[in-house]
């Protein structure tokens, strides 16, 4: 139980000591009495060479945007998405070029609280185009989704990430 304005800082493995860290795929934080929560999440590599953080935001949107897809040459873009709803959802991923022209789309079914992670070019497979500049993820049926993205280089020297943007 958190008191008003109380700070809570823990490693996920401290919150769930009976689980192996590699078995924890996602964490859902809920205020049972509907009080607003805010915070940040830190993530990094196991060698502790790179560390980044993202704001923890309420999951209320059924549409998310990835404003930059960098997947050509040495650059790659990865996405992680979670169905934060209480039932299964079909999520439609759509790619667009810099002019907003539709390029291709794929769909994935996510169970309640399921998460997926893909490199964008692997998600779209043969339908991926290097002219892709942004992506939209939309949950049909209105289930709320949450997403993050990472952009990096194949040599491992550059890495950044942030949350996908809500359309609402």
Brief overview:
With 168 residues, the chain is mainly β. The chain is 5% helix and 42% strand.
If you had to describe this structure to a student in words, what would you say it looks like?
- With 168 residues, the protein is mainly beta.
- The protein has a single domain, classed as Sandwich (Hypothetical Protein Tm1070, Chain: A).
- 5% of the residues lie in helices and 42% in strands.
- It has two helices and eleven strands; from the N terminus they run αβββββββαββββ.
- It has helices spanning 12-15, 120-124; strands at 39-44, 51-56, 63-66, 75-83, 89-96, 102-110, 115-119, 134-140, 145-153, 159-163, 165-166.
- The strands form three sheets. A five-stranded antiparallel beta sheet has the order 6-5-8-3-11, with no helix packed on it.
- A hairpin with a 5-residue loop joins strand 9 (145-153) and strand 10 (159-163).
- The protein is globular, with a radius of gyration of 17 Å.
